[in-house]
Design brief:
mainly alpha; about 160 residues; two-stranded antiparallel ribbon; elongated; single chain; 2 strands
Length: about 160
């Protein structure tokens, strides 16, 4: 049974404020500044010049992923099979053959491999009021993410 008290005028608004704070303070994920070791692999037989160039190319593709890809395909969402046009580097600063389609496809494949790994991401909590613009879509996405986090069975990786 529900009884009305004089303190209801204080308790209910306080509960609403607390609920809004809990819903709006959420984790955000950003790709780490430093490139994961598994994103760059080099052969021991490569010369030091070639390894240095390969590391610069890998670093440039990692920066492209930080600038362009992480905002289009956020944490927890799969990457498409083909690299989008935004995943590119400026070949003029490195070497002529580093922006060829094979190299781009190689680093897109490596990005797909490291994308789900926790060591590729920084997690921090921030105030996020974006759910206010479309609360229905935001709440359904929150329920989907929560369901997957709590109940989805993940197969072997």
């Amino acid at each position: 049974m529900f009884f009305r008290h004089n303190t209801d005028k204080l308790i209910y608004p306080l509960l609403v404020v607390v609920l809004l704070m809990v819903v709006s303070y959420r984790p955000t994920y950003h790709l780490r500044r430093e490139m994961p070791d598994s994103f760059f692999t080099s052969s021991a037989s490569d010369s030091t010049q070639k390894r240095a160039l390969d590391k610069k190319v890998a670093s440039a593709y990692w920066e492209s992923a930080q600038r362009n890809i992480q905002y289009r395909y956020p944490h927890g969402h799969p990457l498409p099979p083909e690299a989008p046009a935004e995943f590119n580097i400026d070949a003029r600063t490195l070497a002529a053959n580093v922006s060829d389609p094979a190299t781009r496809a190689l680093y897109w494949h490596k990005l797909q491999q490291v994308w789900p790994l926790p060591e590729a991401w920084n997690k921090q909590y921030e105030w996020d009021w974006s759910w206010v613009s479309d609360p229905l879509a935001s709440s359904s996405q929150w329920m989907k993410d929560t369901w997957q986090r709590w109940f989805a069975m993940h197969g072997p990786r």
